[in-house]
Amino acid sequence: MESSGSALPSAASSSFTTFVLPIAALTVAIYSFYRLLVYPLYLSPLSRIPNAHWSSAISPLWILYVRYTDNENDALLDAHQKLGPVVRLGPSDLSINSIDHVKTVYGGGFERTDWYSMFDNYGVPCMFSTVPSKEHALRKRMISNVYSKSFMQSSPAARRQARAILLGRLLPLLTASTAADQDPQGLEVASLFMATSMDFISAYIYGLRCGTDFLRNAAYREHWLQLYLNRHGASFYLQEVPSITRLMRAVLRTSPYPQWVDWATQELSEWNTALYNKAMAFLGNVKMDGNSTGTFNRGHFAESPEDEPVVLQSLLTNLERETATHGTDSLLYATAIKQPELAVQSELFDHILAGQETTGLGLTSLAWKLSLHQNAQDALREELLQLKKQTQQGGDDTEFFPTAKELDALPVLQAVIMETLRLDAPIETPQPRQIPPSGCRIGPYEVPGGVRIASQAHTLHRDESVFPQADEWHYARWLPLSSPTDDDNDDNDDAPRRAQARQFWAFSSGGRMCIGSNFAIQEMKEVAAMIYSRFQTHVVDDSGMEPDEGPVSEQLYLRFAPLT
Ligand code: HEM
Description:
Blueprint: H1 2-43, H2 61-68, H3 72-83, E1 86-90, E2 93-96, H4 99-107, H5 133-141, H6 149-153, H7 156-177, E3 187-188, H8 189-206, H9 218-240, H10 242-252, H11 260-282, H12 310-326, H13 333-337, H14 340-372, H15 374-390, H16 404-408, H17 411-423, E4 433-434, E5 440-442, E6 445-447, E7 452-454, H18 457-460, H19 495-503, H20 517-532, E8 535-541, E9 557-562
Parallel strand pairs: 2-7
Antiparallel strand pairs: 1-2, 3-9, 4-7, 5-6, 8-9
Helix pairs in contact: 7-8, 7-20, 8-14, 9-10, 9-11, 14-17, 14-20
The structure holds protoporphyrin IX containing FE.
GO molecular function: heme binding; iron ion binding; monooxygenase activity; oxidoreductase activity, acting on paired donors, with incorporation or reduction of molecular oxygen
Cofactor: heme
Organism: Ophiostoma piceae (strain UAMH 11346) (Sap stain fungus)
């Protein structure tokens, strides 16, 4: 009896090891084989889409490696040129390169992904990092008016700020560089244009008095730019492998990127808080706790419109209105109304970062292209000098400062900027969105919900069917057909021009399109007009302008020759 009692469990355990375990292992193996190979390769609705790499259907490793090595633009261009407008990058990751598909995704309000959460500042979201569409739209409405073209063109603050920055700060630096005793190597303009953009955007947000003076404070600006560059080291880990990053932090108490990235973020955040505090103090200690002094009166700034903190005021006023109207029921209650000071700082910090790097890069590319293409520079100068003559602002050169509306009517100025932003878009990398849960149709393909999908200016702007000789900087492609300076336009068909305008995607499109596009274009026009009505520029050294998908590290040395 004793022996039979002990034999039973051992028979059970032997049948477990003989039958159950192998069957379980086989089931797992078959299921894994099906899930990881058969389904993604042959049965998934995505399996009909061409793969950018042989492994794309079954593994994200190839595209992760491409992103890690900052080669995404080239890899996507190559894939789309070979495989068409829809390609599969990873098992659940698509790239599109057709303006019709772009309309479906970006015009259709497909939501952003957590990829954007690294753009939270101070631990709270801003408009850029907000995922839900309704919350995003509410945030956008609070500030979109002050960035609209009509508002900006007639804003006394914007005009006086631009004048003070360009005539009071940038022009003296350029003029000094032309003195006979100056080093013939020329001026490094990438850093100078980043400084110009920073001074522009911080003045519009916080007022000229409380904004930056990076143009004249070269030492601090170089330090700031270094901190900013340091942050790029973390993007891959935070955006592409966030769960591994979180796991490493939680379990190993370490981070995949160096600690100085966090220190740089901390210092930059404190720097922005200091600007905010200064502007708030200037505004007269407006309280954010519901006992505020009410809406702001532009009359305060009648004497010195340049000191008006335009964006800050708009945000404070509208956030206050939302608090008063909806209070705890507001969609923004948890993320903004409960912590208004941090929410405002987070939003404005994002505008500062978004506005300085992009426009600075755009201006650097513009000056580079105009220095390489002296014929375009001459055409632009002729247009500007003509305007100067018409507006009779002659006499003292330093005072020529056309209005934003006057500049907006200049076709060559518009064309050189469009062509520069086409070929050298400051943000040309993919802008990921997710397919909604119900799925959608992209061209001939049914795509299930949850799939990551993105397009990018880099490939859209190199589509030869829309932009012939797409790799060439050819500003005349943007000139109106009737323009006397456009020799190439003998045909009267403007359909190709409409197609170009439709496919221009430097600022994205749809509800999440860049809010600062008018600001950036107006600034670029003002800077270009100031420079090219006074100087001729020549390249001294552009070896630092090699195509670079990595962190912003461009360098460009130009010589400024005063017009005689
Ligand atoms: C030439 C200059 C600029 C370029 C090329 C540019 C480009 C872009 C692009 C492509 C996006 C969409 C990004 C995405 O969805 O992933 C974007 C969004 C944004 N940009 Fe710009 N930008 C420029 C200047 C500015 C300026 C001056 C500001 C200052 C306010 C700004 C503020 C923003 C903000 C706040 C967003 C987020 C919009 C939203 O979420 O609805 N940008 N920009």
